[in-house]
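Quick board copy: two proteins, each given as sequence then tokens.
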Amino acid sequence: MSTWRRELQPGDLFIDVGANVGVYAIWAAECGAEVIAVEPSNDSLPRLRENIALNGYDITVLPVALGPTKGTSPFTVGLDDVNKFAFNVSGPVVVSVETDTLDDVIGARTAAGVKIDVEGAELLVLEGAPVALKEHRIRLLQLEWNDTSVRTLGQDRRPVVELLGASGYQLFRPDADGRLVPAIDPAYGSDVFARPL
């Protein structure tokens, strides 16, 4: 979060993908950013909206999942803050949610920041932003960087590294003060940031 305190300026656009109950969304709003919070989970949406109201910020909430295309996708319910795309799950713990793309959310604008924490499906969100990534209209990305992608998509983080590299983005990790330090082929651990070269 100290990285965002350094990076965000009043009036910047910040998109919180996988907003959950709004910790990052509210943090970005406190920095003066215009915030779009994306959260498809009916478990989290009421608390997200309540936290936004309690803090008095004008944050746009989009109750959709972001992926490679518009449409619908299976999504878990009842798992609190770890609900996710449910490609290999069936039964009463799965519902259909509306999906959109990050390109559609950004439109013709430039996002100063995009945080993506979607329980291992970060690649799918990035696949829905080919235009914004190619045109470098996302100035800084934050990505969850653990092994949940193996459980959700059946793959490690290598495809994310390749997609971002092909789009001209370099990977970083923050130091203790939130300054970004280059991270070449980072191992699982703390979140990774990416910005255009």
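And the next:
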Amino acid sequence: MKTRQLCCVAALMLAASAAAQMPMPKPGPEHKKLDIFAGSWTLDGDLKPGTIGPGGKVTENETCEWMEGGFFLACHVKFSSAVMGNGSGQSFMGYSENDKAYSYRAFNSWGEFEEAKGSWDNDTLTWLSDDTTHGMKMKGRFTMKVTSPTSYNFSYDVSQDGTKWTTAMDGKATKNK
């Protein structure tokens, strides 16, 4: 029994020694590409009448900052809409080496959870998700087209089949000074 315990202790010490010698991982260029979204932003959107609701103006104030290590942007948002009401949320953006895709996870004060995978095409980051809106399963597509270091246009489109898309909301985001 003592021999077995000694082997376990030796194995743990060897693993700890190996971990101490491994360099800490560093964010890659894919992570750094998200740096444009770090900071404080105001998003002004136009919710279209349709599957999400009757339509109207939506305003979001969002602050994003890098978590320690530089792998994920942590964002806090407060949103308001005369039609949908007010709320808050938290989201995380990063890059998954395993999936070779950007990752997005968000939680809000309405009890909703969102998860999406994204990819860049030149100056446009597109997120794709499977959503449920008012009990209906839908595909979601959130597009962020960077127009300058301090602004981007966005749109959120929905589709039942992933081929025919309808714009549910669009607008502009401006970085606060």
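Board note added afterward: Helices lie at 2-21, 29-32.
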